[in-house]
Write a structure and sequence with these properties.
Layout lengths: L2 H18 L32 E9 L2 E15 L5 E12 L10 E5 L8 H8 L2 E3 L14 E3 L9 E5 L8 E2 L11 H18 L7 E6 L1 H17 L5 E5 L16 H16 L5 H4 L2 H13 L1 H8 L5 H15 L3 H6 L6 H7 L7 E2 L7 E2 L13 H21 L29 H10 L4 E7 L7 H9 L11 E6 L9 H15 L2
Parallel strand pairs: 4-7, 4-9, 9-10, 10-13, 13-14
Antiparallel strand pairs: 1-2, 2-3, 3-7, 3-8, 5-6, 11-12
Helix pairs in contact: 2-12, 3-4, 4-13, 5-7, 5-14, 7-8
């Protein structure tokens, strides 16, 4: 080794040794100040191993002070080897100060989609906090806000809101694919697993239990009732079926399927009445207009559609005139569309002379899309009126009020396609599962709720499905119906929200 290299090595060793003992070979007085290392910020992403967040609050309902706990957390969906395949987010509200808490009803709530979180039922009508909209359900100017919901049913039942996997904060665990949950059976099985575990951990097996589903959540609830019964022996007390579908033959048009035209007609009549497009005698009396629409739909209209091209010209002319009377659309337009006007075209055409399109979820609500060349609206004004307020307030509520921190987005509506239906035909149905659950548990009661101006899932479609259940006549007394003035999410309309509370109270206290 050369002299220079030897000296350099020695100097290096001395420097290391001095540094290790707190010395420095450099002049400290001239050295720049040490740069403070910034702490690394990690993402906050809770899962089923994270402890739930619990708070206690008070709400006044009907002049009664209701103290409750709210629990926001996640539960695992377990595989056979007890490892987790997903973490499911929930928000639970439990009334406090009761002497017999186990006897208190528990209502388990979810929306539909498929791919929707439970935000709509949660902050729309059932929970103790709700989105502040205009009283008629239209959107106020942003920013948006939450208010106490004096029309909640928390004084009558405890509430559990659950977000299926891929919605809300619910996510599959690492190396698990969300697609394994995207199907009719997979969805029912995963929600059934969640309900069993939540009920077990919270000691609610002996409580009266109800499912409340909206939209596709009605389809889910019917399947879940039978699944919980057969898989876990969990018998339910009731189902609340809100603005939904049991048989897709009532919604999906297709060759040889005239059923959607029949079950949608009363909703078209109710909508035309709201917008003052009916003849004077019908405009003066909504019950009369609805009765006439339903009688025609299930009688001469059904026969006319059944006969098709074999329908005599005179009978066709009568059907055209009757449809014009009941929908407010020009007779020539109806004739050109071969007696069938789908709801999407109706939304575009009814108020075209005013440049207005109608909402799909709530046809009372109108908007302008600036395109008069199309027979189809470019967006849904009723959905646009709710998405912003519900998204903003849910994100604020979870982190700012409930203190549940999660840096992942809360998925209001998630993409969950393609969805795998257990269908032998083009029209999936759970009517057989609902009739099975009701037949095996004769105490299972069903409350069917729907808005008259719902052009997504008209209430007459569920009526049709319920009327065709393979069910003994003695069990039909367990089915109750209620109609509302607005649409799919009737609770955004304040008068309907008040009625919803009353109807649910009555159903939960038979």
């Amino acid at each position: 080794m050369t002299f220079k290299r030897t000296c350099f090595a020695v100097a290096t060793l001395l420097t290391v040794a001095m540094t290790a003992h707190g010395a420095d070979s450099s002049d400290k007085t001239n050295a720049p100040p040490a740069k403070k290392e910034e702490p690394r910020v990690l993402a906050v992403v809770p899962d089923a191993t994270t402890k739930p967040v619990v708070q206690t609050n008070t709400l006044t309902i009907g002049g009664e002070s209701v103290t409750y706990t709210v629990e926001a957390g996640m539960l695992p969906l377990l595989k056979a080897d007890a490892t987790s395949r997903a973490s499911v987010f929930y928000t639970a509200y439990t009334r406090q100060g009761l002497t017999n808490a186990a006897a208190r009803p528990l209502m388990i709530c979810f929306n539909g989609g498929p791919g929707s979180s439970s935000v709509w039922l949660h902050l729309g009508g059932l929970g103790p906090r709700r989105v502040k909209l205009n009283d008629d359900g239209t959107m106020p100017p942003p920013p948006f806000s939450l208010v106490n919901n004096e029309f909640s049913i928390l004084h009558t039942a405890d509430l559990l809101f659950v977000d299926p996997v891929a919605t809300g904060f619910s996510r599959p665990t690492k190396d698990e694919k969300a697609e394994q949950f995207f199907g009719q059976s997979q969805d029912v099985e995963s929600l059934g697993d969640f309900i069993r575990l939540w009920v077990t951990r919270h000691q609610r097996w002996l409580s009266p239990k109800y499912l409340c589903g909206e939209s596709y959540g009605v389809f889910r609830a019917a399947g879940l009732a039978e699944h919980l019964h057969s898989r876990y022996g969990m018998y339910l007390n009731g189902l609340v079926l809100l603005s939904g579908v049991l048989d897709f033959a009532t919604l999906r048009e297709g060759p040889g399927n005239d059923l959607p035209s029949i079950v949608f007609l009363p909703a078209l009549t109710a909508t035309a009445h709201f917008h003052k497009r009916l003849p004077a005698d019908l405009q003066a009396n909504l019950p009369k207009a609805l009765a006439e629409a339903r009688e025609f739909a299930q009688g001469d209209y059904a026969i006319a559609l059944l006969r098709g091209a074999a329908l005599p010209a005179a009978d066709r002319a009568k059907a055209v005139a009757k449809l014009a009377r009941l929908t407010g659309l020009p007779a020539a337009f109806i004739d050109d569309h071969d007696l069938q006007v789908d709801s999407t075209t109706f939304r575009e055409m009814l108020l075209r002379d005013q440049g207005l399109i109608l909402g799909r979820y709530d046809a009372r609500i109108t908007g302008r899309d600036g395109d008069k060349s199309s027979h189809y609206p470019r967006f849904d004004p009723s959905y646009a009126a709710t998405l912003g307020p519900f998204a903003a307030t849910m994100n604020a509520y979870l982190r700012e009020e409930l203190k549940f921190e999660n840096d992942l987005p809360y998925e209001i509506l998630a993409g969950v396609g393609p969805w795998n239906y257990d269908a032998r035909s083009s029209y999936p149905s759970v009517a057989d599962r609902l009739s099975s659950a009701m037949s095996q548990n004769p105490y299972l009661r069903v409350l069917v709720l729907g808005g008259l101006r719902d052009l997504a899932c008209p209430i007459d479609g569920v009526h049709y499905s319920m009327d065709h259940l393979a069910l003994d006549a003695s069990l039909r007394k367990n089915i109750v119906y209620a109609e509302f003035e607005s649409g799919h999410m009737m609770y955004v309309n304040l008068p309907d929200l008040k009625k919803l509370q009353h109807d649910l109270e009555k159903f939960l206290k038979p």
